[in-house]
Amino acid sequence: MTATMRALLGATALSFAGFALQAETLTIATVNNGDMIRMQKLTGDFTAKNPGIEVEWVTLEENVLRQRVTTDIATKGGQYDVMTIGTYEVPIWGKQGWLVSLNDLPASYDVDDLLPAIRGGLTVDGALYAAPFYGESSMVMYRTDLMEKAGLSMPDAPTWEFIADAARKMTDKSGEVYGICLRGKAGWGENMAFLTATANSFGARWFDMDWKPQFDSDAWKSTLSFYIDLMNDAGPPGAANNGFNENLALFQTGKCGMWIDATVAASFVTNPKDSTVADKVGFALAPDNGLGKRGNWLWAWSLAIPAGTQKADAAMKFVEWATSKEYLALVAANEGWANVPPGTRTSLYENPEYAKVPFAKMTLDSINSADPTNPTVDPVPYVGVQFVAIPEFQGIATAIGQQFSAALAGQTSVDDALANAQALATREMTKAGYIK
Hints:
By secondary structure, this protein is α/β, with parallel strands linked by helices. Helices cover 42% and strands 13% of the residues. The longest helix has 18 residues.
């Protein structure tokens, strides 16, 4: 068993038995985010164009999805024919030979239309190993009415100091309005995605150039203290249980003054069918501290084909359909341009109809401002903005995420959470051979 496989399985202790599939039924594992739910509703377009191929969906909460697909691919379980995976997994799994190359997509797919920042994160040694379903960074979404009521005006590029001041002024706990909603739910792709990106803007980093963990640094203490103090003063109750979907629901029901999270959420918070504050939402770049780095990430939820599938040809047809220009047009025809999966294709941002969408430019600016090859103020030996692109990261970050979530819940102190994070990361990095 390779070190990569051991690391991945160490992060995903769950094991799931495979089950028999009908010959032409594709089993697709995906996350329970709004864009993926919409894709499922439009699947009839795919099956009509591809008679003989049926689709079976396995839709899971983000943390569970990550556990299941990681276990399945590392053990060659063969449960899934198409997997929804992220920018973290693709280069690691592609290098291991665990994914089918997508270099055989037809010319009509126009792979050169994919945004360079997004395509680069899904490419290993010249081979594209996943097709982006949507790309995202993170940004500030805020209530324009509450900002005005607080006597403030949101800059296009705010500082953390401004955000903290605004959040406290916008909070009305007796009226169940909280100045800021941020991720607190434990998980390497939940609270640790937000906190790692935020830490970059505070001058913190996961490891120094010798791979020694840095959670005992002043910069990490400043990051975690700032976050917990702000959430205690201006965040909703039970924040340690809130991830993307929970904060989305809070914002849509008028309970958040600001929410710093995935740019993809913009279409949901401005959709009058779902959001009670749809006409009162503004957007700004993720905050900074004047150190040259913003607290925004870079991510793509992408469709990949595991090397163990027996149905690679049919799977390739589905991936092509779901990530094509034609799919974007299909969503636009059914749901309007504002609800098209964002952040994947240059042609979308050149489309004059899409340019009218109020958050289109801020989304693209946020994606382009992220720098995964130089994510931190001080130099680091890794790439990745809200993650570290090594196999051990998800196991270490999941455990550290539990420490930081406990600190947010008041179950442990900031100092103890950071000390535990430092000890845990040092132990695992030593065991993996990074630290001599």
